[in-house]
Structures are given as C-alpha cells and as structure tokens.
C-alpha cells in the first residue's frame, strides 16, 4: 500500500526495499572498490545466452534487409562472349595524363567469358597485359561504336544552311545588319548578314 505525506514523499517501503537492496549491493564499495555481490555462474550463463540470441536475431534481420535491398535493384549481367566492353579506370594506375582529364572507362576490350555470375574475363590489349584479366561486373559496361548506338532516342541537330561565299564582284559592304556565331565541324565561326553598296 502506497502512502504519501504532505510533502509528497512515498512511504511504500515494502515495495521499494528490493530495489534499494539491489542498488546497494551493486554499487562500488568505497574502501575496496569492489561489488558486494557477484552474479552466479548460472545467472551469467543465462545472461550470455540471451545476449547471443539477441545478437543472432539482429544479424538475421540485417541480412534479410540487405537481401531485399539488393534484390530490388540488382540485375543479372547480360554480357555475351565476344562482346566489346569498357572497364572502369579504377583498376588501372598506369594511365597517362592528369587524373581529372582521363576517361572514366578504358577500352574497348573483347570479353572472353563469364566467371561465375558477377565477374567477367576480358582480353586486355598489350599495354595492359600485365593486369589481371577478371573484373567484377559493376566495373564493366557495354561499348557502343557510335553515338547513335549508345543513345538511340537522341534527336540529331538540324543541318545548318549552306554558306554562300560573297564574291568581290557584288561590291563593297555598306552595312552589317546582323551577326551570329555558330559551330561548324567542331570550330566556332562567325557569320554576318550585310547590305552591299550598289555599283555605280
């Protein structure tokens, strides 16, 4: 039975006594710096057993969660023997040029065969012949010879109109009406719309 005095303190010593006894027995002794009680072998065994069961349960749940995440986004590689593939530059440390200017993938190389489900064996060229020929599929991607094969849905830019050269026989330029800058054959060129002077 719980009883509180006018200051709000409880006087249910019968129910509180086991907790007080446990707190007293498990605190460090001031002189010897030791616990006054120790768990028995049976209690320690039960505690160890519960800890192992909890750890096994947590590991099983984590494995199941990781499996679901992997199965949700994982796709089996569709590489075939003889395909042309590119390999990530992460496995090549003998490439020339600055790191930032290098291509992300090296190749193309001819695929020899699949090694298991998650690795491929490729035939490296002479400059990379000292490297191991087996790579995980996460570092390999198909090689397309043309941009049309890589991006089939990409629309081509319209062909710019043919440039007609102005001959000197038309006379000198009277006024520049408009100017524009276009890119032809990989170079920037400037074009002008002009008004010519009439020949007298």
From TrEMBL:
Residues 82-143 form the Tf2-1-like SH3-like domain. Residues 149-169 are annotated as: Disordered. InterPro entries: SH3_Tf2-1 (IPR056924). Pfam families: SH3_Tf2-1. This is Tf2-1-like SH3-like domain-containing protein.
């Amino acid at each position: 039975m719980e009883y509180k005095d006018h200051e709000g303190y409880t006087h249910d010593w019968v129910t509180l006594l086991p907790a007080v006894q446990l707190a007293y027995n498990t605190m460090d002794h001031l002189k010897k710096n030791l616990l006054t009680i120790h768990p028995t072998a049976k209690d320690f065994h039960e505690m160890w057993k519960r800890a192992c069961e909890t750890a096994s349960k947590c590991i099983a749940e984590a494995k199941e969660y990781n499996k679901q995440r992997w199965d949700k986004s994982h796709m089996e590689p569709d590489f075939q023997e003889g395909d042309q593939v590119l390999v990530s530059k992460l496995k090549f440390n003998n490439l020339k040029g600055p790191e930032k200017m290098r291509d992300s993938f090296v190749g193309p190389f001819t695929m020899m065969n699949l090694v298991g489900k998650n690795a491929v064996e490729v035939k490296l060229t002479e400059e990379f012949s000292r490297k191991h020929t087996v790579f995980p599929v996460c570092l390999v991607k198909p090689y397309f010879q043309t941009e049309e094969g890589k991006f089939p849905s990409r629309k081509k830019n319209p062909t710019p109109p043919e440039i007609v050269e102005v001959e000197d026989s038309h006379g000198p330029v009277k006024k520049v009406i408009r100017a524009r800058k276009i890119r032809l054959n990989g170079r920037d060129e400037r074009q002008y719309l002009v008004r010519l002077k009439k020949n007298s």
